[in-house]
Amino acid sequence: MMSKRHLYFNVAMMIFPWLTLLFIGKRSFKRYAFGGFFIIIFEIVNHLYGHKRNWWKFYDKKDAFYKDELPFSIEPYMPLSMWILKYTYGNFKKFIIVNAIADAIFAFPGIEILKKFKIVGLHRLSNIQFFFYLHYKAYLLYGIQYLVEKVRKTA
Question: What is residue 58's three-state secondary structure?
């Protein structure tokens, strides 16, 4: 059974990031949706691997991917990826810096806050390893978006 704290966290993590996409604009949504969707699929695969390796531990008694890792894969990644692409795409240095800041916020104080609220904590990863686990996907996201833009220009 999922604790109320965990349930409220999952619901908030689902509603707030996705609601922000109402303000991204139709053109930006269409432009960055593929990259955002791709990063969700890639993140699900990463979470399955991390789940198998026990890189983190959720505090609820029953260990269930669908209520633990899956919300972290789907809920914040696509909206955040699309917003970062919207404001930084075309300036790789800015894109990497913004991603590094966002990843550092989650990997250091963010994970500690989640640990204090007894939602999730790192188990077999240090905070710096977790940062790199988060951050390397930024390069993949930028590369995918670059390919999408290239295909659209030739079409």
Answer: strand
